[in-house]
Design goal:
By secondary structure, the chain is of the alpha+beta class. Helix content is 51%, strand content 14%. The chain has 6 helices and 2 strands; from the N terminus they run ααβαααβα. The termini are close together.
Length: 116
């Protein structure tokens, strides 16, 4: 006995749910400064002991600003290092276990139909 044809909206080619079934988690990286063990007095002491003549002797404002930024950032890197945090975003909320079980059932019946 031959089964009736499957409607187009149920075919594997149209849905391609095999690829969508287990969505990979997307990973996003966020960089931030960790002030957890930041010691303000040591930071101030380190800033005051820097050689500021390379900033004050510049004739161009852009070069002076760049050197000032480099001095501050390099000192901050010692006392408040940059940390990278991995944020994982899980599958969309509409992708429930009930939906996945229905997809599995549909794939089972499609495979059974294609074998017959």
């Amino acid at each position: 006995m031959r089964l009736p044809p499957i409607p187009a909206y149920l075919t594997i080619q149209w849905f391609s749910a095999r690829e969508r079934k287990r969505l990979p988690r997307t990973v996003r990286y966020v960089s931030f400064r960790s002030y957890r063990n930041f010691d303000e007095s040591k930071f101030r002491q380190s800033i005051s002991s820097q050689d500021w003549s390379q900033v004050t002797s510049c004739q161009e404002i852009d070069l002076a600003a760049e050197r000032f930024r480099d001095l501050i950032i390099n000192t901050l890197d010692i006392y408040a290092p940059v940390r990278n945090l991995k944020l994982r975003e899980y599958a969309p909320p509409w992708l429930t276990t009930e939906y996945l079980s229905l997809v599995d059932m549909r794939e089972y019946w499609c495979a059974k139909y294609n074998k017959s």
